[in-house]
Amino acid sequence: MKATGIVVEYNPFHNGHLHHLNQSRIKTNSDIIIAVMSGNFLQRGEPALVDKWTRAKMAISAGVDLVIELPYAFATAQASDFAKGAIFLLDALKCEAFCFGSEEGSLEAFHHTYHLLSTKKEEYNTAISNFMKQGISYPKALNESYKVVSEDSSLPLVDLSKPNNILGYHYIEAAYRLHASIRSETIHRVVANYHDEAKPSETIASATGIRKVLFGELDLSAIQNFLPITSLDELSRWKSTFQSFGSWERFWPILRLIILRHSKERLATFAEVTEGMENAIWNAAVKKDTFQTFMEQIKSKRFTWTRIQRMLTHIYNDFTWEQLKSFDLPTYIRPLAMSKNGQAYLQSIKKDLPLPLVSRVAAYKDNDMLALDVKTANLYYLGLQSTYAQKMIGSDYRITPIIH
Description:
The chain is an alpha/beta fold. The chain has 2 domains: about 5-105 and about 185-245 and about 330-404, 3-Layer(aba) Sandwich (Rossmann fold); about 265-315, no CATH class. The chain is about 50% helix and about 10% strand. It contains 19 helices and 7 strands. It has a 7-stranded mixed sheet with strand order 5-4-1-2-3-6-7, sandwiched between helices. Strand 1 (about 5-10), helix 1 and strand 2 form a beta-alpha-beta unit. The model has no long low-confidence stretch (mean pLDDT about 95).
């Protein structure tokens, strides 16, 4: 069986994801689609709308064959480490290809861009440092530096101001640096861009746009045009069971408590908290009673909303700089859900896997990375602040991979 890998968050699984999934299968002529998916906290530094088990069920119901969890240490990391962890797992799972959506749509431009930045690495890093000294954010410094080093190139290059192009570039970079045998493919992103509003006249909207509508309306009928019926059913079940969706606004009372119970010095020890942000975070938590007003106070030109949210994610989950530096690559493969075909594929490669396969957490002890996944899952359910969510604490020890 030929397998193709995709890297996903499915927050939630929508029609655009379904298009990407189907096109990935067609473009690579694959028998199996394997999705490496973030757990309960995401790369933009926020809690998932619904938990990893629910999102994994959405994926399998829509046609994914195997869903593997991307460990917290990579799922909540900056783009380069997020990509590194995901591509490493897909390569370990014997995928022949990985396929990502991009605004660019041309694979050639990604390879040209990687080789350009590799050959001009010193010039690029110097430019980044100079732009950072001007007080602008790291992503903007990267983009401005990219313009500097690419201005004389006549080759087709990727526009790295686009969010999906940025992630795509890092997937390509990770594959090169890991010397992975997996080949890359890309599909042009259709209709909705990452930050676009959801338009009622369309059937494809970004996950960001869908969540914005959902949080505004609190009515699933407002987003029904954008999701497969299987996703809508899972969201409906979640809402009736948990009574709330995951968001920082929902988690704010607990996050605020955690911030204020620490000293500013302690806050500085958490991953990604840097350059005095511990002071701004603590001072704003004293004054602001909503997450939105808290973020509006501390956001600056230097740090993007996403970067600050990742700081807060690590504070909430007690994840320190020391822990971050101790993790280089994923140390296990953890399936969350699979189809019958996915189960057969996994069985066929099981003996050749370079990493241990973790189906039962209780049977795999003394692994700090896995222990972190379990802890952050528990803290996610605590943040939902509903009666049923409290019963889900410890569920990583009770739930085995879903076979659908």
